Amino acid sequence: MTPTLTDCLLIIDVQNDFCPGGALEVPTGDEVVPLINRLIHHFSHRILTQDWHPPGHLSFASSHAQAAPLETIELDYGTQVLWPDHCVQCTRGAEFHPALETANCELILRKGFRRAIDSYSAFFENDKITATGLSGYLRTRGFDRLYLTGLALDFCVLYSALDGQREGFTVQVIEDACRAIDVDGSLADAQRQMDQAGVTRIQSTDLDR
Ligand code: VGL
Ligand code: ZN
Fold this sequence. Notes:
The protein is of the alpha/beta class. The protein has helices at about 30-40, 135-140, 155-165, 185-195; strands at about 5-10, 45-50, 70-75, 80, 105-110, 145-150, 170-180, 200. Helix 3 (about 155-165) runs parallel beside helix 4. The longest helix is centred in the last third of the chain and has 14 residues, at about 155-165.
């Protein structure tokens, strides 16, 4: 498949903290880098997202007394999973994996920078109201089909895929270019939710046809 000018590759959160040795490591998260680099050269348009939290972010377990990572709490906007401190602005953990070829990507969309709201999705923060502006950007640029890759499949990739589809884009998730955290069956649940929403799950080899 030759990507058209209205196809866009979205590379979600391929950052040091989500790779082995990072603060919120996704098992084998770094393995997606060579494949995503190939996809970067295959597509004509590419966008990166970057999880970008201020110190003391409300999604950090350390911001709550007696809370441990992976516990959940109720915030104004609903249930929030608590995470280890990760992707703190201007730290090495927030930088992209050093081997990721970011140079010819057109936009870096940062998210999760409001202290009191987490943002898994590249389109809407976790309150489901606060927009990141990405829909407007993509529409204005004339993109209609989005190919999602990156970390983590069962959180930021999932939420971005569901919102992208809801916003009227055709969303395909390239599964072998993603890795999951997989807590409490979250990977199987993510796959079910994507299927229900009409998000297509493909393998990178499907693009060669
Ligand atoms: C993510 C948990 C917290 C992700 C970001 O990129 O999937 N997960 N922040
Ligand atoms: Zn985060």
